[in-house]
Amino acid sequence: MATRTHFVLLLIVVVIATSVQVHGTLSPTYYSSTCPKALSIVRAGVEAAIKKEARMGASLLRLHFHDCFVNGCDGSILLDDNATFTGEKTAAPNNNSVRGFNVVDDIKAQLEKACPGVVSCADILAIAARDSVVILGGPFWKVKLGRRDSLTASRAAANTSLPGPNFNISSLISSFSVQGLSLKDLVALSGSHTIGLARCTVFRARIYNDANIDASFAQSLQKKCPKSGNDDVTKPLDFQTPTCFDKLYYDNLLKKKGLLHSDQELFNGSCTSAESLVKKYAQDVSAFFKDFAKGMVKMGNIKPLTGTAGEIRINCRKAN
C-alpha cells in the first residue's frame, strides 16, 4: 500500500513538473486555437509595409534584435517613456535609428480586432522579423511563440546591452556570448546587414580612420558623409543589393567593403574562426540561410516572459 501511495505521489510530481515545463516553453503552434489567423494577419501587415517602403523589412528585423538583446524578447523596446521609467527608444543605439513602430501598431490593431488580448507585442516582433526576411528573399523558419510583454523598459540596459557599430571582434563575441549566442550565431546573424541602411554618424569613423577598408569604397562614401555634418545621410549596409536578403554582405567583407567597423571586424585578420565562417557564407548561401535561421530561433528564445509573467499588452506602446 505504501509503495502504491509512493508511486501515485511520484506520478503527481512528474505530471506537475511536466505541465510547468510545457507552460513555460515557446511553441510554433501557440496561437493555433486562440488566434488561428495571427500569423496571416502579421504577414499581411508586413507585406503591406514593405510594399510601401522596402527598407521597412530591415527595420522590423532590427526591432526584434534590439528587443531581445535588452532583458530578453519581451517587447520592451516598444514602450514609450512614462512617469515611472525612461524607455529604450532614446537609448544611444536606438535614438533616431530604430523605426517601424507604426507598422507594429497597425498589426496589433488588426490582431485586437480578430482576437482581443491574445497575441503579445513581443511575438509580433518575432513573427514580423521572420516575415520580413522571407519577403526579401531570405530563409523561412518556424517562429516559436508564447512570449508575454514586459511591464517596463530600461534605457540604461539598452545602452549597455546592445553591440555597437565600433565594436571590435572580441567585444562582439562577448556581447553575443552574454546572450547565450555563439561565434557562429554572431557571424550568421550579422548577415542581417545584407539589408537596410546606416546613418553617416555610425560609419564616419570607419571611412576616415580604418586601414582595413577598400580605398575607393571609402572615398565614395566620404563624398556623402563629410567629417562633420550630414549625420543623418544614409547609405546601404550592403551597397550591392540593399533590399535583397542574400549573401553579398559576406562578399563585401572579403573585399574590405563592410560599411560598419563592426562588420569588417568579422574579416580583419584577427579571428580565424570568424573569417572561415565569412568565407563559407560567401561561397554557400544555403549554409548562411541555415545558420541564420537557427540563430534567429536561438535569439528569439532569450529570456522570454511566459506563464503568468508580464502581460499581453492591448497597446504595444504602454502597459495595460
UniProtKB/TrEMBL annotation:
<feature type="binding site">
    <location>
        <position position="238"/>
    </location>
    <ligand>
        <name>Ca(2+) 2</name>
    </ligand>
</feature>
<keyword id="KW-0349">Heme</keyword>
<feature type="site" description="Transition state stabilizer">
    <location>
        <position position="62"/>
    </location>
</feature>
<keyword id="KW-0575">Peroxidase</keyword>
<comment type="similarity">
    <text>Belongs to the peroxidase family. Ascorbate peroxidase subfamily.</text>
</comment>
<keyword id="KW-0376">Hydrogen peroxide</keyword>
<feature type="disulfide bond">
    <location>
        <begin position="35"/>
        <end position="115"/>
    </location>
</feature>
<feature type="disulfide bond">
    <location>
        <begin position="200"/>
        <end position="225"/>
    </location>
</feature>
<keyword id="KW-0408">Iron</keyword>
<feature type="binding site">
    <location>
        <position position="76"/>
    </location>
    <ligand>
        <name>Ca(2+) 1</name>
    </ligand>
</feature>
<feature type="active site" description="Proton acceptor">
    <location>
        <position position="66"/>
    </location>
</feature>
<dbReference type="InterPro" id="IPR033905">
    <property type="entry name" value="Secretory_peroxidase"/>
</dbReference>
<keyword id="KW-0964">Secreted</keyword>
<dbReference type="InterPro" id="IPR019793">
    <property type="entry name" value="Peroxidases_heam-ligand_BS"/>
</dbReference>
<comment type="similarity">
    <text>Belongs to the peroxidase family. Classical plant (class III) peroxidase subfamily.</text>
</comment>
<feature type="binding site">
    <location>
        <position position="246"/>
    </location>
    <ligand>
        <name>Ca(2+) 2</name>
    </ligand>
</feature>
<dbReference type="GO" id="GO:0042744">
    <property type="term" value="P:hydrogen peroxide catabolic process"/>
</dbReference>
<feature type="binding site">
    <location>
        <position position="88"/>
    </location>
    <ligand>
        <name>Ca(2+) 1</name>
    </ligand>
</feature>
<keyword id="KW-0325">Glycoprotein</keyword>
<dbReference type="GO" id="GO:0046872">
    <property type="term" value="F:metal ion binding"/>
</dbReference>
<keyword id="KW-1015">Disulfide bond</keyword>
<feature type="binding site">
    <location>
        <position position="67"/>
    </location>
    <ligand>
        <name>Ca(2+) 1</name>
    </ligand>
</feature>
<dbReference type="GO" id="GO:0020037">
    <property type="term" value="F:heme binding"/>
</dbReference>
<protein>
    <recommendedName>
        <fullName>Peroxidase</fullName>
        <ecNumber>1.11.1.7</ecNumber>
    </recommendedName>
</protein>
<dbReference type="InterPro" id="IPR010255">
    <property type="entry name" value="Haem_peroxidase_sf"/>
</dbReference>
<feature type="binding site" description="axial binding residue">
    <location>
        <position position="193"/>
    </location>
    <ligand>
        <name>heme b</name>
    </ligand>
</feature>
<feature type="binding site">
    <location>
        <position position="163"/>
    </location>
    <ligand>
        <name>substrate</name>
    </ligand>
</feature>
<comment type="function">
    <text>Removal of H(2)O(2), oxidation of toxic reductants, biosynthesis and degradation of lignin, suberization, auxin catabolism, response to environmental stresses such as wounding, pathogen attack and oxidative stress. These functions might be dependent on each isozyme/isoform in each plant tissue.</text>
</comment>
<feature type="signal peptide">
    <location>
        <begin position="1"/>
        <end position="24"/>
    </location>
</feature>
<keyword id="KW-0560">Oxidoreductase</keyword>
<feature type="disulfide bond">
    <location>
        <begin position="121"/>
        <end position="316"/>
    </location>
</feature>
<feature type="domain" description="Plant heme peroxidase family profile">
    <location>
        <begin position="25"/>
        <end position="320"/>
    </location>
</feature>
<feature type="disulfide bond">
    <location>
        <begin position="68"/>
        <end position="73"/>
    </location>
</feature>
<feature type="binding site">
    <location>
        <position position="74"/>
    </location>
    <ligand>
        <name>Ca(2+) 1</name>
    </ligand>
</feature>
<feature type="binding site">
    <location>
        <position position="70"/>
    </location>
    <ligand>
        <name>Ca(2+) 1</name>
    </ligand>
</feature>
<dbReference type="InterPro" id="IPR000823">
    <property type="entry name" value="Peroxidase_pln"/>
</dbReference>
<feature type="binding site">
    <location>
        <position position="241"/>
    </location>
    <ligand>
        <name>Ca(2+) 2</name>
    </ligand>
</feature>
<dbReference type="GO" id="GO:0140825">
    <property type="term" value="F:lactoperoxidase activity"/>
</dbReference>
<keyword id="KW-0732">Signal</keyword>
<dbReference type="InterPro" id="IPR019794">
    <property type="entry name" value="Peroxidases_AS"/>
</dbReference>
<dbReference type="GO" id="GO:0006979">
    <property type="term" value="P:response to oxidative stress"/>
</dbReference>
<dbReference type="Pfam" id="PF00141">
    <property type="entry name" value="peroxidase"/>
</dbReference>
